[in-house]
Every structure is written in C-alpha cells, then in structure tokens.
Amino acid sequence: MYDQQVLGGAMATGENSETESKKKRSKISKKGENAATSSTSDLLCLLSSLPLSPSFSRLLFSSERKQPPLPTHPRSLHPQGQPNARYYGGNENVDRLELLCKERALRAFNLDPAAWGVNVQPYSGSPANLAVYTALLNPHDRIMGLDLPSGGHLTHGYYTGNGKKVSATSIFFESLPYKLDPTTGWIDYDKLEEKAGDFRPKMIICGGSAYPRDWDYARLRAIADKVRGFSLRTLHFLFSRFRLFFSIPLLSSSSLFSGALCLFDSLSFLSLFSTPFLSPSLSLPLSPILSLSLVLSDRIKQVGALLMCDMAHTSGLIAAGELKQPFEFCDVVTTTTHKSLRGPRAGMIFMRKGPKPASALKKGEPEGTCYEMEDKIDFAVFPSLQGGPHNHQIAALAVALKSVATPEFKAYAKQVKLNAAALGARLVHHGYKIVTGGTDNHLVLWDLRPEDLTGSKVEKACDMAHITLNKNAVVGDVSAMAPGGCRIGAPAMTSRGLKEADFEKIADFLHEALLICKDVQASSGRLLKQFNAGLAADKRIADLKTRVEAFGASYPMPGFVIDASKAATNGH
Ligand SMILES: Cc1ncc(COP(=O)(O)O)c(C=O)c1O
User: Fold this and answer.
1) How far is the CA of 252 from the centre of ligand 1 (A)?
2) Among residues 45, 139, 160, 435, which one has the fewest Cβ atoms lying within 10 Å of its Cβ?
3) Residues ≥6 apart with Cβ < 8 Å to 202
4) Between the CA atoms of 431, 435, 437 and 441, what dihedral angle is there, to the nearest 10 degrees?
5) Cβ count near 33 (within 10 Å)
6) Is the distance from the beta carbon of residue 524 to the nearest atom of ligand 1 less than 6 Å?
7) Ligand 1, atom 6: nearest CA belongs to which residue?
8) Ligand 1: which atom is nearest the Cα of residue 311?
C-alpha cells in the first residue's frame, strides 16, 4: 500500500518517462516470486526507467536480493528502546528480529559478544556518529578527524577554511582536523601525533569517505594513548573522587592516588570556575594554582584519547578480511550498512564492553574495571537522538549480515579490490594522476587538477553519458564545493558481475569523457554555465552514452535479468 502511494506519486510527476519506461520494461523481467504484486510492478516500472549505467558510488540495489528491497510489515510498530526493554509492549517478535540482527552483526565481524556490544538502530551513518559523540563526549570536548578535503567525512568535525562550522560535530565540539601529506597523499601520522600532543583531543576519529588506502590502526592507538586530555568531565570526576575520598576510612594506595587526583581536580575546577567572578586581586593569585593543578591532574591521570573508527565505506571489505580490522585497536566502531557491506541504508555502532584489559586501564582504575560505553551509547541513540527504530531496515540488515558470512560475499569483496585496482591502473596507463598512485580498497580518487578540469565538470559529463561517479575534494583543495577530483567506487558494478577487464573498459570510457571535457572547455569557456551548454551541444557525449548504456545493460542487475538475447550477444 505504502509503496503504491509513494511510487504512484513519483510516477505521476514523471509522466514523460512513462513511454520510455514501458519500452524498457518489456526488456526486463523480474526474477523470483514477487513479480505479480502490483506494488513491485510499480517499483519495477519506476526502476526500469532508470539507466542501467555503471553506477559506481551509488549502490541502487543492495546485494543479490531475491526479496523486496525492504520488508514493510515491521515498519508499523514503534518499539522504542532496546530489545526486552521497550517503552511499549507487544514487541516480542521485533525483539527477536533485532536480537538476531545484533547477533549476526557481531558474527559478521568475528567479535566476541562478551567483549563487544552493538547497536543496530541508527537510521544511518551520520546519526550513528552523532550518537557516539553524544554518549562519550561533553559539549565542547575536543575531537580530531581526517579533514574533509583529505577524504574525511562531514561528521568527523568539518569546518571550512574561513571557520564556518558546517557539521553539527564542529558546532557542538571543538574540532581540529588532521590531514594527508600533500606530497604523497597518504595520511601524515607524524603530523597527527604532533597536533594531538598539542590539542589533546578527547577522541580521535579514523576512517573516511574518500581515502584510497588502508589505515594504520596500531599507530593511531599509540597516538591516542599518548594524549593526555582535560575536559569538563572533571566535574563528574571531582564528585566521584570526593565520594571515594571521604567514604573510605582506611585509604588503600589506589584511593590515596584517587585522593591526590581529587585534590588537583578540585583545585583546577574551583579556580577555573571561580576566577571570572572574583576581583582581580583574588583571581590573580588563583591563576598559578589553576595552571599548576591543571598540569598536575592531566599528567597524573594520563586519560588518553578515545579512538573511534568510522568504517562506513570499507565495512564490507573488513568483514570479508580484505582490509585490516579496526576492532583490535579502537574503542568504538561505527558504520553505514549500505556501502561495501551491501545492506539497506542504515547504521551500526559497535562498542567495547566487559572488563578492560590491563593495557586499557587508566591510572587509578583497579583491575576488573569495566567499559561503560554500551548503556551510554544505547541511551544516546534512544531517547537522546532518535525515536523508534526502523524495524524494516533492521530486518533487511539482518538479511544482509547473514550474506556477509557466505563464500559469495567473500568473493565479491576480493573482486571489489581487484576491480578498483584495475580501474586505477588503467587510468594511470592513460597518463592520469590518482591520489596515492593506487588503491588498497574499493575506491579510486582521480586528481583532475593536472588536466586543468574540476570534479564538477567531469561529473557532469559522466552523468550525461550515464556514468555515475561523484566530484570529490583531493588533498590541497580548499573548497568541497568546487573540488579538483572525482571519486570512483567499485562495489556497485562488481555486484553486477564485472571483472578487471570490464573495469579497464570503464576507465577507457572515463578517458573518453575527459577528453570531451577538455575540448568543450577549450571551445565553450571555463565557466560552468558555458561548459555545460557546450557539453549539451556536443554529439560525442550522446554517442558515448549509447555505448555506455549498451555496456551496462549487458550485465545482470541484482533482482532483475536483462533481456536474454541482448545478454547473449555480449557474452554474459
Ligand atoms: C565515512 C562516512 N561516515 C558516515 C557517513 C554518513 O552516512 P549517511 O549519509 O548515511 O548518514 C558517510 C556517508 O557517505 C561516510 O562516508
């Protein structure tokens, strides 16, 4: 019902495409048992009007689905809270569903349920990240993430060069980005270490949206452990230590230590907060006390920074063992579920739980002290940030996570890497520059600045040729709005069965598109408006589009089969 209404509306606004849709629909037949339902026929009709072009970075269909994209029945429930602890009753079946999803999530990443918890309710990646910050940081705590133009994500604390706070993360927290080495395009870990030593963040975030290399999690952990921070948590710390200090008559060495910390924290807290209200004659003598107590409490506590990994882009490759896994070194790991993991659009948060290993104990913490992140993160997801979970997404995620354990998924992940590498190598063969000169993962970042083109222009030309990629900042860019590169991902077309030679063919198409861009820019002008007009009038783009469509249509689409005779002529 819902599908019919929504898609009916969408189709009413797309009358012109109706005839073309019908034509295309005749070429496409639906696999599986759902073909007869009117809602899926509408869906099929709408989708069949879409070009079957190499969709690089947007995975329209997740995985090799033989079931509808998202189940609809669980959607009508409103089970706020965690399984077996919902606000409303009547959720036994949804509880089972969510528990199954959690179990599969942990299994997909080979995690011990005694040491890791997972929350599968985040609506997507950005809410997942904000939930982690809400749970583990206080407003204005300091964070460090990879800069957006270096390949980081908005939610890792992005603000523009002129200080405009773009992301909620930079609005609510104090963020200092780390960057790539501009000469190599690799993350500059030495610089990060130096900056972290000065900035003393409460949290370091790794993972990104457009970084083509794997991460050095061991190095990041070492950097995080070296950081000694001071935050407004001192207030909380102060009260807890005071309690301990006065309530234990026989002070053990650890509570003596706690007492010392309490003293330094009390002094720093009192002097910090009272100074603005005191007359200069009183506040002046207090300031040395403030400085000394801040330094001493920080030095002694050695709190270290939390290390969070946002593996949104690479979680599928990590699950398949094709990239290093971050869990050994990170405290929290977040992910979207619709990228290389090939699930529905949703998010997950993994957090450590249970007793801390000796290496993670802060000074003064007795052996056996447990992580306290799970409840805080669950609480941040609901009720702090979200309402009821999207159970239909969770159901679809449970299906996707089951497939992660299959040999087919492992083969897909391996092929994604091979395909991305083949695409990159072919672009280099054509004389182009790609960031870091290659890729370890699923994406290639194409630096267009040596070609005197922008990402927007190449993206536009590719769009017109039915090649979907996206403009992207490359290291050294100052604006994410006018970036100097394009990001090309391999998962979508790998899911349609393409291999290395096919990706080389895609690189050849990209090469053609770029040559057209250069000609059009030379003849029509550099301004985007002039460029776009010139592109629209160029017959070569239409020709490229025809060949790209024929190429794309010759591969199967998950959930659909293409006209058998056409597929046969292309050898698929
Ligand atoms: C690394 C990373 N984190 C988080 C997100 C946010 O995901 P969403 O747009 O689904 O909220 C993205 C999205 O592209 C991402 O690349």
Assistant:
1) 48
2) 139
3) 136, 137, 141, 142, 143, 229, 231, 305, 306
4) -120
5) 9
6) no
7) 125
8) 1
Q: Is the pTM of this model over 0.90?
A: no
Q: Can you tell me the distance from the alpha carbon of 398 to that of 278, in angstroms, rounded to the nearest whole number?
A: 59
HEC string of 214-262?
CCCHHHHHHHHHHCCCCCCCHHHHHHHHHHHHHHCCCCCHHHHHHHHHH
Instruction: Please choose from 133, 209, 335 the residue to mutate so as to test ligand 1's pocket, defined by most ligand atoms within 8 A of CB.
Output: 209
Q: Which amino acid is at 415?
A: Q
Would you say the CB of residue 126 lies under 6 angstroms from ligand 1? yes
State whether the beta carbon of 170 lies less than 6 angstroms from ligand 1.
Answer: no
Q: Is 155 in the pocket of ligand 1 (CB under 6 A)?
A: yes
Cβ–ligand 1 distance for 153 under 6 Å, the answer: yes
- Type of residue found at 469: L
Compute the Cα dihedral for 455, 457, 459, 462 and give only its sign. negative
Which residue type does 475 have? V
Q: What's the token pair of residue 94?
A: 């949804």
Tens digit of each residue's pLDDT (9 = 90 or more) over 301-344: 446 999 999 999 999 999 999 999 999 999 999 999 999 999 99
Q: Residues 182-224: pLDDT tens digits? A: 999 999 999 999 999 999 999 999 999 999 999 999 999 999 9
Q: How many residues does the chain have?
A: 572
